[in-house]
Amino acid sequence: MGQQAFFHAPHGGADFLGIRTNRSGATEIIYDDGVARRMVWRVSGPASEARLNEALRAAVGAVRVVPTLYDELKKRSIAVERIAG
Q1: Of 69, 2, 79, whose CA–CA distance to 32 is shortest?
Q2: d(C-alpha 36, C-alpha 47), whole Å
């Protein structure tokens, strides 16, 4: 998974979700609310890029992005661990 994917809230908010690969090759999910909150999670197990993109796209379209992100990841059996924020 060498690509990056980024999603911005369609409802005019500054919410941002992204996927990146860190230096050691692990996949990370980044959330930023545009004001004060920045959170980073490491994907713990194998997960396809398509499933991650689906989960992030659904979450960023919700009013409550972080709780929806957790729900979407759980639906797809994608395990994450919070590493920052």
Answers
A1: 69
A2: 29
What is the predicted pLDDT for the residue at 16? 84
Q: Give the CA-trace dihedral at 58, 59, 62, 65, to 10 degrees.
A: 180
> Helix (H) and strand (E) counts for the chain?
2, 5
Q: What residues have CB less than 8 Å from 69, skipping those under 6 apart? A: 17, 29, 31, 55, 56, 59
Q: How many CB atoms lie within 10 A of CB 53?
A: 15
pLDDT tens-place string over residues 24-77 = 889 999 998 878 889 999 999 888 888 999 999 899 888 888 999 999 999 999
Delimit the domains of the chain by residue range: 5-84
Question: pTM for this structure?
Answer: 0.82
